[in-house]
Design brief:
The protein is of the alpha/beta class. Helix content is 47%, strand content 15%. The protein starts with a helix and ends with a helix.
Length: 324
């Protein structure tokens, strides 16, 4: 019996050591990928055109005219952060301001289709930032939306200073959607009226477990626990902190939830988990049939635009009759 116990103890020690090493590898693999930042700009410019043809030409044209501009701020932890902003197509009759937030490994170029939707079709001013470790923004690692929410709160103030609107919507895709949901649980200015989240995960822990399971069914969940500990020590936050459901439980402002039912990266089940977690205020969801991850607009551009437009009109009407 003593021999069995010793062998079990040795096996447990080896397993724990391997989990720790695997956890450290996973934390760095997930949060400090390469290439990133300015080294990855060209790929993402091409990606923007694949999602909506002519996007980079649109961007370059307005940039050359001085209509689309750059802005810089400093994060609370001292990083220089970048965003672009552009006024509505008809500035005098702008409906409000949209902040568009990109996903994991992307940057402000990639979701130009949303920038163009808000600016050219819905007549909103738009600010679209690079999150930390992405695009032209500094940062030592990806924040998965958790610390990003603090940077977005700064961008909210900047956008309001630029456009002085009393109606602001935050719209994010994938990790950007998680960023929006995590931000929604914070105390925000009254002019932030609503949110749109597109295929966001319900928590970093759940998403990384899914990614780990995709790698191999045999890998233990202890690796996630270990990676979270490593992240806490080295990056200042643990995975379990970044739980969109906890933030959504505090959100009282309207939110549109979007998810493709063929999404096999952020599971479709996360839609209802997030939707059900929001227990206060107006909410609505739209399921994009057959859409894979972050593909709802590309598959249904007209319907996507209609869903967003109708949601925003509803929120405007709620404000007009004093229900918000």
């Amino acid at each position: 019996m003593k021999k069995v116990i010793r062998l079990a103890a040795i096996a447990l020690a080896v397993f724990s050591l391997n989990s720790c090493l695997a956890g450290k590898f996973m934390a760095h693999y997930a949060l400090t990928p390469t290439p990133h930042g300015v080294d990855d700009i060209e790929r993402t410019r091409h990606k923007a055109d694949s999602l909506m043809p002519g996007s980079t030409a649109w961007y370059d044209n307005y940039k050359a005219q001085g209509i689309l501009k750059d802005e810089w701020i400093t994060s609370d932890d001292g990083y220089k952060l970048h965003a672009c902003y552009i006024p509505a197509a008809d500035p005098k009759n702008a409906k409000g301001t949209a902040i568009v937030i990109h996903g994991y490994g992307d940057n402000h170029y990639v979701f130009l289709y949303l920038v163009r939707m808000y600016r050219d079709q819905l007549n909103y001013n738009v600010l679209f930032p690079d999150l930390q470790y992405h695009g032209y923004s500094e940062g030592d690692e990806i924040q998965m939306g958790w610390k990003d929410r603090l940077d977005v709160m700064k961008w909210i103030e900047v956008a309001h200073e630029k456009f002085n609107d009393d109606f602001m919507v935050l719209h994010g895709v994938s990790m950007g959607a998680a960023t929006v949901m995590l931000t929604s649980g914070e105390k925000l200015p009254d002019y932030v009226k609503c949110f749109v989240e597109d295929c966001g995960y319900c928590s970093v822990t759940d998403q990384f477990k899914k990614n780990l399971d995709d790698m191999s069914k045999l890998l233990p969940n202890a690796i996630i626990t270990s990676a979270s500990i490593v992240s806490g020590k080295e990056f200042g936050w643990k995975f379990e902190e970044a739980d969109c459901r906890k933030a959504l439980a505090k959100c009282e402002k309207p939110m549109l939830f979007i998810h493709g039912d063929a999404d096999d990266f952020v599971p479709f089940s996360h839609l209802d988990e997030n939707y059900n977690a929001k227990i206060h205020g107006y909410k609505v969801k739209w399921v994009a049939p057959g859409a894979v991850h972050a593909n709802s607009y590309a598959k249904y551009p007209e319907e996507y635009t209609r869903q967003v437009s109708n949601f925003l009109k509803t929120v405007h009407n709620m404000i007009a009759v004093g229900n918000l």
